[in-house]
Amino acid sequence: MKHELLKNKEMSAEVYALRREVINLIHEAKKLVDLPRIEVRVTDRHRIILGAAKMSQNVIWITEETVASRAVVFHEILHAVFGQEHIEGCPLMAANIDPHLDSKTCDRLFLKYAKKQVPKAKAKVRKEAA
Ligand SMILES: [Zn+2]
Asked: Could you give the domains of the chain?
């Protein structure tokens, strides 16, 4: 799947390793809340964008420079799985975030928004499984 502003990297051993970093962070998120399978694309770096998501469609794009950023990956999961919109002033869900946000704060805010959205997400998963 393509993103209008981000260029997917061609799969190679190097890109596979980058994607593995994103998947490891998805596993970290799965320790906090149930998640469906998420499609991950690693893209070239971008001047402004760190990541992107297809809202409520379980697809995320992460730039090669932010594959190891818990904040960026958790932010995109909240968009992609839970349909969470941006929240001005929130260290995790503002439109512009610090990719180095500490993991304790990432986990706390991720759980807060995921829990808020769970009924909708579960309904979505059931619908796709049918
Ligand atoms: Zn966002």
From this structure: 13-129 (3.30.2010)
